[in-house]
Specification:
Keywords: Fatty acid biosynthesis, Fatty acid metabolism, Lipid biosynthesis, Lipid metabolism, NADP, Oxidoreductase, Peroxisome, Phosphoprotein. This protein is an alpha/beta fold and 286 residues long. The chain contains eight helices and seven strands, in the order αβαβαβαβαβαβααβ. The protein has one domain: Rossmann fold (3-Layer(aba) Sandwich). Helices cover 39% and strands 13% of the residues. Bound molecules: ligand LOHRUJSQ and NADPH dihydro-nicotinamide-adenine-dinucleotide phosphate.
């Protein structure tokens, strides 16, 4: 057990920035809802009045999230799947249709990576990260859009990505996948505008979640110093932004990438693995 993240009681003690009822009458689908940011998003969506669809691979974690947000009296559908399987994604949207009609907002939050020097990433690990973060997100985007098109209505997609504008040493696979999601999002924001579909991305900087457990604690400590605010971001800071971007408050926004990163994109070098001596200041000749 580590100190990363917020538990359900801590999340419940916080207040979303958006007004009560912001999502009233709407269905919000969240992938990766059994942990971390996704779990925080489930709290936020339920508190803002949505029907909530919770997805991820591990059903026990999704049931746990459902129990935790039971305190807000939201309608909740738990649907385990891997987003890497396009047929499973189709089944998910059919289950949502049967229960709630149609999703209004799809939040593609599921994803992850492991730290590795790019030169050492094995083929299986490369495919796991690309197929999850790029492929899985794409399956979700395309199926959502098809359902909205067939129903003659629009919708809103938020893709949770990462800060990719500079290099991401130690996570090249995720850099490639997330940059791919951003390019895809900008492209279909144009193609799907006539369908009334908006697509935006939120790029978190370093956020305190249990997902941090995959990194060396020394690297995590160093990473907290790589933004101009010199700290971790918190789950609620991402949840507020994702809900704003997903809902009607941002109805004139599409194809956007909103960075919530304490200024990491403008400053600081961030290594998820040991920084080579080559880049250390002491190694620079006088
Ligand atoms: C420079 C800027 C850096 C910013 C990054 C920091 C900010 C971002 C933080 C986060 O995103 S934290 C939260 C995200 N959560 C996670 O990352 C969760 C943990 N990761 C995963 O679950 C995996 O990375 C995954 C690959 C996405 C899971 O996919 P899957 O379950 O299909 O994979 P596995 O079967 O577990 O593994 C497949 C394959 O991948 C390789 N591999 C997986 N984990 C590791 C590892 N820790 N180290 C090395 N290699 C790994 C490996 O080849 C696996 O195959 P096998 O060897 O098991 O046969
Ligand atoms: N925390 C941070 O600093 C940052 C996080 N991000 C991104 O934000 C998102 C949430 O991260 P965070 O909450 O921190 O980490 P977590 O590891 O807690 O969350 C990742 C979630 O994705 C789900 N998931 C993984 N693979 C699949 C799959 N194939 N199908 C369905 N669900 C899957 C996991 O659930 P299960 O295992 O049950 O499937 C898990 O709930 C991730 O995409 C992450 O990379 C981006 C930048 C920074």
């Amino acid at each position: 057990m580590t100190g990363y993240g917020r538990d359900d009681d801590a999340l419940a003690a916080l207040t979303p920035a958006l007004r009560e009822g912001y999502f009233a009458g709407q269905t919000v689908l969240i992938t990766g809802a059994g942990s971390g940011l996704g779990r925080g998003l489930a709290h936020w969506a339920a508190r803002l009045g949505a029907n909530v669809v919770l997805c991820g691979r591990k059903v026990d974690r999704l049931e746990d999230t459902a129990a935790a947000i039971g305190r807000y009296n939201a309608q909740v559908l738990v649907h385990p799947l891997t987003i890497r399987d396009p047929e499973a994604v189709q089944d998910l949207f059919s289950a949502v249709a049967a229960r709630f009609g149609c999703a209004d907002i799809v939040i593609n939050n599921a994803g992850g990576q492991f730290p590795s020097a790019a030169i050492d990433i094995p083929p299986k690990g490369w495919h796991a990260v690309i197929d999850t973060n790029l492929g899985g997100t794409w399956h979700m985007m395309q199926e959502a859009a098809r359902r909205w098109r067939d129903a003659g209505r629009g919708g809103s997609i938020v893709n949770v990505v990462a800060v990719t504008g500079r290099g991401m040493p130690g996570v090249a696979h995720t850099a490639a996948a997330r940059a791919g999601v951003i390019a895809l999002s900008k492209t279909v924001a144009i193609e799907w505008a006539p369908l009334g579909i908006r697509i935006n991305c939120v790029a978190p900087g370093l956020i305190s979640t249990t997902g941090m457990n995959v990194y060396d604690p020394r690297a995590v400590r160093a990473m907290t110093r790589t933004n101009v605010m010199q700290r971790f971001g918190q789950i609620e800071e991402i949840a507020d932004t994702v809900c704003f971007v997903g809902g009607n408050a941002s109805q004139f926004m599409t194809g956007e990438v909103v960075h919530v990163d304490g200024g990491n994109q403008i400053w600081g070098d961030q290594w998820t693995i040991d920084k080579p001596d080559y880049f250390k200041v002491d190694s620079i000749d006088d």
